[in-house]
Every structure is written in structure tokens, then in C-alpha cells.
Amino acid sequence: MSQSSSEPTAPRVTVLSEESYELGEGARAVDGVTFVDLLAGRLLRHPGTVGGEVEPVLSVDVPLGAVAPVAGEPGRRVAALGDGIALLDAAGSVEWLARPEEHAPAPTRMNDGVCDAEGRFWAGSMAYDGESPLGSLYRTDPDGTVTRVVEDLAIANGPAVSADGRLLFLADSAQHTITRYALAEDGHLSDGTVVVRTGEEGVPDGMTTDAEGTLWVAVHGAGEVRRYDADGYPLLTVTLPAAQPTSVTIVPGGLVVTTAAEGMEAPGPADGRLLRVDLDDAPTAVPVREFGPRR
């Protein structure tokens, strides 16, 4: 279990977006990079390269936590949004699969989400106050069935699935922890073990895995992206010019990181912006997995 990180490194970081987002999130290497302006309910796209521009993809009238492409249906996405899980078409029309947070005892919303190797969509929820243990992790099977699999979380974040599909990592940001689960082929989680404690200097937010078997974590409040092995051993710390990184995705030559300006009295020039990090020894991405039956 890790409680500290390796010596920080300060690679070249480029601000990619002119606009500052209150809560950028959910970066995925799809069509370049897609990401969300979460509280505004916007899905956006950027080529992920220096000189590119942010383009709008779609918008909805509720917070949009994360999306994943639907297999064999270009322009269609499964999404964690508002109080549940839905399918979105290219115009942003919503087809609800389930709304499990609709009757929560206090205000909650869906948060981050990702697909696994079997085409299931895993998405977390959180209490708006960021403290009440009302959050959950949900599994949406390819047939559209939504099941609550982990309860009593404050801010369910990540999640991320290993390259071999056998491990799922889940952060509870309010607890400063990342838990590793064994992920069975049938979608059952077992052997939950806390492998990372980020300490008080920052909280684990969005995460991704790479082909080398390691985990990349945006550490909100610390202004860092940290790389860990599957047992939580710290391998690398990347220092950013933004205090609140929220998600990270791997692109050729480095990383793209979303950040947030939410709650900042005096945001700096990189806060809330989309960032590119160039790395000399860049990791190899795990291709973004799609929702739906394997073909």
C-alpha cells in the first residue's frame, strides 16, 4: 500500500484549451480526446495535439459525468449523467436505461465511468456535499441491466480497468483511497484491497491504465498526475501548472489531462484548462473499450 510518491518530474506541459472549465472531466482517447464539461452537461473533443482546437460534440440539460462509445453504432454513447445511466445519440437525445439515484435521501449525481473488456459500463455516483456516504458503483451490462455493486462511498471516482481486464480500480476521493478489486469474467468483484492512500495533500480523481499494467491517477488538489504499479507502488509523479487535475488519458507521446477551476477564488492561467503533457518515456495506451456485446 502506498502513502508517498516518487520524486516529481516537470515535463513540458501545454495548455490546449482557450476556455477554462469549472469541472473538466472524463478524458478518453476517442476521436483524438473527448472530455466533458461536467456541470454544464457538455461533451467536447480536441485532437490532443498542440495547435488543435476544442470542438463541441453534444450537450444535455443535466450534469454529464462520462461517456463511452457503443459498439457498432457510430455517434452513439453510453453515459453516466444526472441521476442515472443512459444512451445518447449524436444529437444528445437521452434514452434512460436506469435512474438509480433519482430517489436518493440527499442530492447526488453520477460521476465518472468506463467500460471493461466484456463491454460492461462501470460508473460511480457521489453526494453533492462530497462527504455523505451516499455514493455507489454501478455496473451496466450490455443488455442494459444496471446493478449497484459497491455502496457507502462518498465520491466514487475512476474507475479504471487493467489491460488484461482482470482488475478494477476504484477511488473514493473523500477517503483519499484507491481500492483494487479482482474482476471476474462474469462481472463479479472480489478481494477489494486499498492499494493507494494519497494522503492529505491531494485526492485521487480520474484514472486510467496502460498496457504496461500501471495506473495513472489525477491527484486533485496536489497539482499532480501520479503513476503507480498495480500494487500501489509509486513509480512517477508529474507536476502540473494546474492545482486541480481531474482526469487523465494516454495519447501518443504523453498524456492529456483535464482540470477544474471549481471552488477557486483566483484561478491561475492553467486552472480549468485542458492540458497536454509530453513525456520522454510515454506509456502505451489501452484502447478505449466500447459498450455492448463483444463482436
TrEMBL record:
Protein name: SMP-30/gluconolactonase/LRE family protein
Source taxonomy: Bacteria, Bacillati, Actinomycetota, Actinomycetes, Micrococcales
Alphabetical list of Pfam families matching this protein: SGL
Family to which the UniProt record says this protein belongs: Belongs to the SMP-30/CGR1 family.
Residue ranges of domain SMP-30/Gluconolactonase/LRE-like region in the record: 23-260
PANTHER family reported in the protein's UniProt record: REGUCALCIN
Gene3D superfamilies: TolB, C-terminal domain
Protein species of origin: Aquipuribacter hungaricus
